Amino acid sequence: MTMKHCISVSVAEQHTGDFMFVLSVIQVKGGSVGNKRAEKDQKAHVMVQQGKQKYKINHVILCLKKHATWIRHNIRKKECCFFIKGAREDVCMCGYGKSEHAAEAIKEEDFSREVWDAHRHVREVPTDAFGEISFGGLRQTTTKYARVSTETSPEALYELLTEQWKLCPPNLLISVTGGAKNFYLKTRLKNVFQRGLIKVAQTTGAWIITGGTNTGVMKHVGQAVRDYSLSSSMQGQIVTIGLATWGVINNRDVLVHSQGCFPAHYPMDVKGRMPCLDNNHTHFLLVDDGTHGRYGVEIDLRSRLEKCISGKPLGNKAVGVTIPVVCVVLDGGAGTLNTIYTAMLNDTPCVVLEGSGRMADVIAHAAGLPVSQVTISLIHRLLKKFLSHEYDNFSDLSIIEWTKKIQDIIRMSHLLTVFRGGGDSHGDVDVAILQALFKASRASESQGVEGWRRQLELAIVWNRVDIAATEIFTDESQWKSGDLHWAMFSALAGNKPQFVSLLLENGVSLREFLQSEDTLCDLYKKLPSCFFLRKLAKRVHSACSRRRKVFVLKNRVQAGPSEGICLSYVSDEVRHLLGNFTQPIYPPPTMTYQFNMEDAASLSRSLSGSQAPLRMDLAEAQRDPARDLFLWAVVQNNKELSEIAWEQCTDCMSAALAACKILRKMAEEESDADEAVDMLELANHYERHAIGVFTQCYSNGEERAKKLLVRVSPLWGRTTCLRLALAANCKSFVALSGVQALLTQIWCGELSVDNPVWRVMICMICFPLIYTGFLTYRRDELIQREFEKNEAIKTVESVTGSALTTKAKSCDLTTMKSLNCWTRLTGLYSSPQVKFYWNIVSYFAFLFLFAVVLMMDFQATPSPGEILLYVWLFSLVCEEVRQLFYDPDGFGFHKKARVYIRELWNILDVLSIILFIIGLGFRLTTQLFYAGKIILCIDFVVFCLRLMAIFTISRTLGPKIIIVRRMMMDMFFFMFLLSIWVVAYGVAKQGILIHNDSRLEWIIRGAVYEPYLVIFGNVPTNVDYAAFDMDSCSMNATDPLKPKCPVLNENQTPAFPEWLTIIMLCVYLLFANILLLNLLIAIFNFTFQEVQDNTDRIWKFQRYELIKEYHSRPAAPPPFIILSHLYIFIRNVVLCRPSHKSRQFRTELPHIEEEELLSWEALMKDRYLLSTQQQQSETMERCIVDTAQKIATITDRLEREEEMSSVILMKRLARLEEQVVQSAKGLQWIMGSLKSKGLALKEEQPLTILSTVKDSSETSEKETDGFHVKARQFHYPNSKVTRFPVPEEKVPWEVSFSSYMPSYYSSEDKGDGVDGSESVLENYRNPGGRTGIRGRGSLNRLGPNLHVDLVITRVRDSGRSVLEFLAVADEQQKTLVLPGGPVESVDRLPAALMRTMGKNLYEKLHEKIAEGTLVFEGYVDDIRNTDNAWVETTVLNLHLDSSDDSEDIISMVTCSRGSLQWLEVSCKTRLCLDHSDSLRRIAMLHNRNS
After folding, report:
1. How many helices (H) does the chain have, and how many strands (E)?
2. Is residue 1264 within 8 Å of 1272, Cβ to Cβ?
3. What is the pLDDT of residues 754-801, one digit of tens each?
4. How many other β-carbons are positioned within 10 Å of the β-carbon of residue 383?
5. Residues 966, 970, 973, 975, Cα dihedral to 10°
6. What is d(CA 986, CA 1004) in angstroms, rounded to the nearest whole number?
7. Model pLDDT for residues 1292-1322, shown as the tens digit of each residue
8. To 5 degrees, how large is the angle CA 1254–CA 1259–CA 1263?
9. φ and ψ at residue 504, rounded to 5 degrees
């Protein structure tokens, strides 16, 4: 395989898009040979494309060359450099054949007697196997691989994985180990394992490390990854790294190429003698030690790589949490046990799957027992049961060693988790894995804030809220809001809404979290790539550019660094999305504010009694954290996070409508269609929220709900819910009965909404009737309602005697005064309803006058009626100008003008006025007098069309006008289709009948007008000989009033083919009159059916504009309205007085009333959410899902019970068999004792039998704590000596242990000069029992080695009495320990403390040592202990009181610069086990709870 071929294939696999360019190049080149006649422009285009593709290909080739260069410089392999024949002549001792060695490795016969040594005869050379593997078969997969040496640095491998292979650093490392050979795994356990492994890898972003071959546990992992890749629609893959031994891989020769293989086609030969690589792994590291056929070569490198990865920071952080590692065990043998033991010694938690077989089941069964019951005989039985085929090959010494390791594994219970598939303890494998990590973390760290923080950080990175809820946020952990702010920020920035909810439930205060403006700015900086972020960045950039230009112009130097995102830019962008009618939601940067509860309380008190301007200014500066978080989530179109924040909002209805407006505005400006659709869906979602909350509010309190609609919201730009709903085009919200009731109330003004229209019209003409009660006013209704309520209260009072209630109600009633005469009169004529009726009458009068002038009184000199018409029109013009400049929302003139011109009725108004002015100008001139009248007649049509606007208020005719407008649009587009047939038939007919007619008007008449009339039944007579009349036409087109005659023949009859014209007419009528007109009817019918359902909503939505127009309109109708315009002009322009603001559409509430209203709204929101959840739970889909889950749970439990029943039955049979054996032994003893008649045996032996038959619970509860543990660790410290394995039961010297053969070790640098002979060693025997090693070890002398620990305590009074002890920094262990060390006698301090404490402090303490209290004295389990040398510790407590000497000691400690520290005597203080026991005794001595 050549380098060029390798690189071209690499392009195909690693850069798919670039490979398409390669293929296109090949196709173009191949096609150019056979297509020599291609045009020049096509050739030039092909050459340009080839140039671009060649550039991309060269770029890919350059990248691959760099990758290959890095591999050859940093990754090496091993090869045998000295051939020594082994069992066969052509095979070396390394296992490779003679032909597989280099030429220089084959020496002469003189070297044949040399012994082959891997350290001397194996060398490292640059690797020759790397690149990509392409697996064949049904699933063609491609993975990366590299052949690496066993001595390769783990840092280089990690760089290869992350930098060269572009893998993201893991959040968790899962090392799966176990049986290397194929083994049977129960179906249910297999499914549970695969599902749990994939789930934990998928949710946490973990790497899975296995042996990499297609056998054993590696095959199960590969199948799990394969099933996930086939079934999952999510992007990305699960990283599965296989570390396999190069020398045992089948078909490895195809992977070798000095330049790398891209790819290497690897055949899956599963029937071979050696294992194949698993094609479901994503990456392979093939470990090479230079030998062939040796298994387990990769174990050491794998261990070092895992340790290296575990030291890397989690989440690319410089400091803090490192990447956690967990070991998952299935099946396995002795090697698996060694792997587990080594992993747990390195503090790696292990999860063992019970039921997977062999060594995993041995550990799982032993794990449920106390260490004292895990005996050699028990391990024998378990090995025989679970490893029956291999049991005969096990030696007794191996079983003793395994027993000791299993005991040590069980003793490290915080690192061992057994997943029992038949129980419900962990639920699933993924939960068991994560719980194992948390259990290990809790055992190794302090359970203070830092310990819980590390676990919470892991849970957030893994995105496992279920683990956090069950393992972290428990009763044991006490969290403050400030302790969780970092977690809240991580959850928000990482888009983990479930964690946000969990943190809010567990005490996070949004007010404290977003107290600083910088936190919110940082959140905006962490926004994902979205439309709002792009717009915000553009705004920031443009603002910085403007500032930089101004700065350069003023100072003639370059500006400083660019400004980042701040809330002022966010406020500007949000205001752009909400609309200019809102005010900035955040104050300018010069305004500062802080959240303080006391300040908020004082602010609340001051606002309640302050004036409105002060309250408005302060309200503008306030911030609501829930609003800020909700806005941050909405602008990024995040439904989950915005939903959580919306539930925290106090002004929830305004928030929902504001979100609707923002999202619809962003969808309008977004270029990505899919993103725009998502935004519209979320906008509709929040519109439904607003509808639900308002419906709940309106059903519980109509008046309060109406206040919510027109209440000014300080948090959302000082606008109202109603204004936001209209701006957001929320038709469904505006169409609600509560909103319409408010609009109807505004429409009626002071009048009652229950007044019939005819009564209102009568009172408009005869206004004195209003004083007779003919019309009902809203104030009268309210007084009557309160009166009836008071009467009801008085009735109750007669029974209950509640005088207080009656007095309060009567007081409220007395405050309500009836309307006076003037107020009733102004209330009548200022009602928008009455204004509307007067304007209708006025408009009809205007049209009547207009018609009279046009038809009867249009003279050369304007008559008085015509002059009145002009004055009337002038008043209409003044009203339109007033509407144009009337801007209660603060749009500004340009925005207001755009809003004004979008309205159809305003367009008609402007058009009618313009036409009237043009017609009036023409009418006043003599030459254009008649033309002016024509324009005015056309203008009258426009004025009549404008009359349709009066029907918009009608519930019956209003929706029909909307349908008419839609049908007019349909008809407009239909005319394009109809015009094709009209013009086609008309031109063809005109050309056939008429020859060379030069009169344009008659050409248009014949080609367009006549075919159009045919549609309506006017059949032409000139297409048929029978109906043709020569008198109806002009022969040479000389008569301008007649059309030109058709071409005549010699007989003076028409020469056109009659059959053709008739057929053309029939076809035209068939298509135009029948097909197209019926199509138009069908379109109208479809439009009517489509719009009919929505017309009511649309009418209710558009009704607001009419009500708002007449609400702001002066009371007098045209032409008398001109007096109102004159008054408005004088007041606003001449006198410069502000216009009166109406409270109907915009209400400022007092602070206390607003708080009560918002609290009530929040309560209604909670009720709405509760009802929504209940409705969702009652839906058919939810019921189906719940039923399916219940069935799955029942099925799973039945399967578990079936398995458990068989297991329980087997246990019962085994117990019964054991009891039968014990009974048989007892009977044998009875028979023997009867034969010998020995009373002593009769009295003693039954006790032994009873002890064996007796329930073992007593022994299990009484686990021996006196046996030393550290003194029996396999590896002796600071040496290469390994202890002889000593199981728990063989520790006492009294117990016989015939196979006990410990090695001898005594360090050379220390010693007491005592001979180490057997006779001497027999004089020194460890009181704790056997340790597995003889001699002095690293201790100073045989026998006891004295050690003193000094516990210096004091009582610190800092609000509460706290007992503290003095700790010393250990430079070697980098931890804090109790001051102490070896001594010759216990009445002296250790000499080593002088260097640590200083000479003065050492002497002071030495003087007071006689005052110390003896706390403990005796044997200590030390890792240096041997069979003949051990450590005995004396613990002395020196308590410092208030004496002068004690004060001197304390002051010396303070000056120690950190080497000495005072720590609280507490159970949370993390020291070694011996020192913790000493502190516990000290606490008991001083009556303290530790």
Report:
1. 55, 21
2. no
3. 888 888 888 888 888 888 888 888 888 788 777 777 777 778 777 776
4. 21
5. -120
6. 9
7. 998 899 899 999 998 876 655 565 677 788 8
8. 175
9. -65, -35
